[in-house]
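FW: tagging you since you asked about this chain on Friday. Here's the raw sequence from the shared folder, copied in full. Didn't touch anything.
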Amino acid sequence: MRVFLILTLTTMSTSVAFGQALPFHDDFNDGDFDGWEVIDDVEPQFGPSDWSVEFGELVQKSNIWSYGPVELETKYHLGTHVATGDKNWADYSFNAVVRSSDNDGVGLIFRYQDERNYYRILLMNDAAWSGRDSSGVPVNTPLQRLQKFIDGEPYILAENKVSQAYPSDYFALTADVRGDTLRAYLNGDLILSALDDTYDSGRIGLLSYANTGAYYDSVAVTLTPVIYSEPEERQFMYRVREFRAPYIQNPTQTSVEVAWRTVAPSVGRVRYGMEKGNLDLEAVESEQVQKHHVRLDGLQVSTRYFYEVYSGSDQSSDEENFKTAPRHDQKQFSFLVLGDSGVDTPTQWRVGEQMRASMNEREVDFVVHVGDVHQGAGDYYDDIYFKPYREIIKNINIFTSLGNHDVITDNGNVYLDDFYLPHNNPDSTERYYSFRWANAYFIALDTNGDFSPGSAQHDFLLEALTDSLRRSATWTFVYAHHPPFTEFWTNYYGDERVQNHLVPIYEEYDVDMVMNGHTHSYERGEKEHVHYLVSGGGGGGLDDFFVDYDHITFSDGVHHFTRIDVDDDQLTVTATDQHGQQVDQFVINKYASLDSEDGDLPKGMGLDQNFPNPFADSTTIRYSVVDPERVILDVYDTLGRKVSTLVNRNHAPGRYIVTYSPMHLASGQYTFRLTTGSATLTRPFTIVR
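HL: got it, structure written out here
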């Protein structure tokens, strides 16, 4: 018979002692887990464990698992556990309220003899690491499993292959053991049962397998049958752990958002104005909060403002400044590109220092972060982002995107709690978005999510690429975490989903540049007129060279950031390493039409000699097209190797001009080759350094 009891969990008393008769309770409200023994399982990987009590909950945050080989890891599903209680406890109900911010293993241990002999309930949401079932067949789904361990070897007593092993919010988990009858309940519903008499008594435990966020609360062991029903609704809060200095978010032509955090709740306010030292405007929050977020509206386009931040009566910042977004007809601006940075190492800080040096040398409008803002578990951004980039984000915004590490914890909800980004897609989510800046259009994608044809994100991309703001822009940039191609990751050729679903769109809709991270390297190349940039050297450990792609013309495993300077129809792209040394520089030019005012079209296909020639830095090429067709303008060296593609697009009949600045080429003889469907023309030229 099932017995249901709805408990007021927050009022349960706490008593932890060995040899004590049941009932036993621990709600961790005393701030510790005294009486619990921490045991890291055999051959720990990425350990040790990290058990602690936070805000009245027992938490384990280390991504720890046992055994290196995958076949052993997924056979045992071990990592770490804590145990308490009396070895003589025999028949009892063992309840806990559980939450997992990861998708790996959580569960209960009961009739615990020692670290190699016990029963357990294991819940796993990660289908890829579920291992094999009791008949040896790969599971490939989330699983719920009732097991026993005898001398360290697991035996499956009962299991379920399910679409979801446990909910994303708080849930109740119960082990009810009576004689040889073992039952497991989830939110009061029976999910697993078995008959087994290997162990007739023993202690209790809580387990965590490869889980960077296993939360336990309201632990209770009772002699009488008690089965927790679904917990009373409680909202998980991402807590403010420390003061966070003000940072600029989501600038537009007429608004800017200022965010900061305080340990003590207060009413936040921002004083601001267009003159330094004369802050005659003010925006005030309506209530006391810890997470401050103030939007300044009614600002003037392309205008510098000065501001100070106050938390209650306390001044939380010196006088700083920001600038609103420019007019759409502005043709000059600069931005930085950074990826895979969040590790809080000297390397990350040095890259950040070089970014500030670049900003001080020449103004930068904003930064694009191509993902893995957090290089660890994605659960705490102060040390790995807000502190290293504090001197940057107080003045300009970093337009971030989600990396795979950012979504490890709560599917990226910690990230979404920390950043205030555009959310102009139909789902009103900040996971992917677009914005216009000067003469350029930017699209941020979430390549951790679904972007296959028919998905909301796929439709959003197509709509963004046909938006009037994009059609009127000179340049189109797309950025996301996972690259379609990469040379610097052993046994990784790039993301196949991106290759299949996104690259054809980039090519069809004439995207100018795609910016990615994920690979910890610097790489750039061009394929079917789309320029690809990997800038994932922001701080994480570097990857090794693996494969040579023909269309990737330069790659290097180096810690760096990338600067892009836009000057009308020309981009100058410069990569700088952590020591301030230039890694690479190249220039991209857009072709421009030179149709005559009287509408007189050229009578034949033509390729003029470039001028000047010879040249050191840049030269101009003019050509003409008589039919609507695809036009390709390539550069070849004396060995017949293609070293650059300047044009690869459909043209209407007319006259065109291209400016070429081959910073990466040495002195010597080269050839321009203009190719259409009907003819090919060439012109030799000389570079003199």
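FW: The chain has a mean pLDDT of 93.
HL: agreed, and The radius of gyration is 30 Å.
FW: great, closing this out.
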